[in-house]
């Protein structure tokens, strides 16, 4: 009797196993598809990063890479401010995750002063500064005693004066190694040029009152001035590549690495060359 009972129980277990192996059926008598595991069914978690940028061309380049980053699980928010000078404080105060608007000499000039512990993660492009005028058609027309506008922040002021020196219009004293100079550092000014030091953003609007001004290309683009009208400009070997900057330690974040990869891709190189021509030069 015990033997028959054991055989009956075994038969029931085998039948149950066969039914389970065939899968359950839905209401139509069809086999139901196996359910995916919860881990496989969950979509990849999207990470949001906020990047502060100048409006042109930086923000435009960031907007271009948004779709690519979205595919990689990174939601990019582009933050522009009325005053680019506030983008480093915003990074310091963790209002943004990175910024993209400045070059290394500018960062170096302000980092020590403000105590920023920042790191550069990528070099993206150079905006060759140029000399613009509404009154002159060539460098040879610059008159004796001409009023020349130059940016008044240390690194860009030095950059402007070096450009004038390269054009043979002035000579700076030797030994300037910190990317900083003012008109006081000029040792030879054969044309007796008068320098008007002004906030860089005001120089495009000041052109009617000046014989000419040296203006950053992003400001030229924002002011709808044709960059091809520059009487002269820096060459492509300029050390002033615009960079991505983060707080030290954040360079290892996966989303920052994806940002850098997208900004230095062949697609971005072509976008920059097609859209900006001589005004913006890829630095990678």
Concise structural overview:
The protein is of the alpha/beta class. It is 36% helix and 21% strand.
Task: Characterize the structure shown.
It is found in: Membrane. This is Lipoprotein. It comes from Paenibacillus rhizophilus. InterPro entries: Lipoprotein_NlpA (IPR004872). Residues 1-20 form the signal peptide. It is built from 10 helices and 13 strands. α3 (55-71) packs antiparallel against α10. The protein has a 6-stranded mixed β-sheet. A 5-stranded mixed β-sheet has the order 9-6-10-5-11. It has a two-stranded antiparallel ribbon with strand order 7-8. It has 2 domains: 47-128 and 239-282, Periplasmic binding protein-like II (D-Maltodextrin-Binding Protein, domain 2, 3-Layer(aba) Sandwich), CATH 3.40.190; 130-233, Periplasmic binding protein-like II (D-Maltodextrin-Binding Protein, domain 2). The protein has helices spanning 2-22, 38-41, 55-71, 87-92, 104-114, 154-166, 203-206, 217-222, 254-263, 266-276; strands spanning 47-53, 74-79, 98-103, 118-126, 130-132, 147-151, 171-172, 186-188, 194-198, 212-215, 232-233, 241-247, 281-282. The chain is α/β, with parallel strands linked by helices and 284 residues long.
């Amino acid at each position: 009797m015990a033997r028959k009972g054991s055989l009956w129980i075994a038969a029931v277990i085998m039948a149950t196993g066969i039914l389970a192996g065939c899968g359950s059926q839905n209401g139509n008598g069809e086999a139901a598809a196996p359910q995916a595991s919860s881990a496989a069914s969950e979509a990849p978690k999207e990470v949001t990063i906020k990047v502060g940028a100048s409006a042109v061309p930086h923000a435009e380049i960031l907007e271009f890479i948004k779709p690519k980053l979205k595919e990689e699980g990174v939601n990019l928010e582009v933050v522009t401010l009325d005053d680019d000078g506030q983008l480093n404080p915003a990074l310091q105060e963790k209002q943004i995750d990175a910024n993209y608007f400045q070059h290394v000499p500018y960062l170096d000039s302000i980092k020590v002063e403000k105590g920023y512990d920042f790191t550069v993660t990528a070099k993206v492009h150079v905006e060759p500064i140029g000399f613009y005028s509404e009154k002159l058609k060539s460098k040879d027309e610059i008159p004796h005693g001409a009023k020349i506008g130059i940016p008044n922040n240390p690194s860009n002021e030095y950059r402007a004066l070096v450009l004038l020196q390269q054009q043979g219009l002035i000579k700076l004293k030797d030994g300037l190694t910190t990317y900083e100079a003012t008109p006081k550092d000029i040792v030879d000014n054969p044309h007796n040029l008068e320098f008007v030091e002004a906030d860089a953003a005001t120089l495009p609007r000041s052109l009617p009152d000046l014989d000419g001004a040296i203006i950053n290309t992003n400001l030229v683009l924002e002011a709808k001035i044709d960059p091809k009208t520059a009487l002269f400009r820096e060459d492509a070997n300029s050390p002033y590549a615009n960079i991505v900057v983060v707080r030290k330690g954040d360079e290892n974040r996966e989303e920052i690495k994806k940002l850098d990869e997208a900004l230095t891709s062949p697609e971005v190189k072509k976008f920059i060359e097609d859209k900006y021509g001589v005004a913006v030069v890829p630095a990678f």
